Amino acid sequence: MLQAAALLSGVHDFTAFSNKPRTRTELRLPPSPVKLLTVGVRRGQPLGLGMLTSGRDVALTENLEFWDIHVYSKSFLYKMVRRCVGGMILAATDVISLADLQEILDNPRREFPFTSRLSFSEAGLFLADVEYHQK
Asked: Can you supply a Gene Ontology BP term from the record (predicted)?
């Protein structure tokens, strides 16, 4: 997961990590797919861990791994973070290789062999903070 995060960090064309338009009205020009992204990963713990009081609730979390993934950028494409996290998980679980992930960064496109597996559920993803800088 850490290696995949390091691979995604930096300036890349994230076309492969955006969702394609669905209708004619959505065919307007998208924002630039070239982004500077910083991805941080560390072991986490369940949200609300301090509120788990019963032994049964704590036991449910013992066999699970929790990760905190922090993604920073000036802007994002539609579903970009979800798909980046999905790519990191696919690489971490050996479904795809880091070379596969690098290849879609080097040759951005919307269709590749594991396109349908890249999307990650929004469950568990939270927007923690938005910063605006005054000019």
From this structure: tRNA pseudouridine synthesis
Reported as type and span, the H/E element at residue 60 is: helix 55-62
Q: Write out the chain's pLDDT in tens, 135 residues.
A: 899 999 999 999 998 888 765 555 555 555 678 888 899 898 877 666 666 666 666 676 677 777 888 898 888 888 888 899 999 999 999 999 999 999 989 988 878 888 888 877 777 777 777 887 777
Instruction: Locate 66 and state its tokens.
Output: 């929790």
Domain count for the chain, please give it: 1
In a domain, 67, yes or no: yes
pTM summary value: 0.77
Domain hosting 21: range is: 1-106
What phi and psi values does residue 119 have, to the nearest 5 degrees?
-65, 130
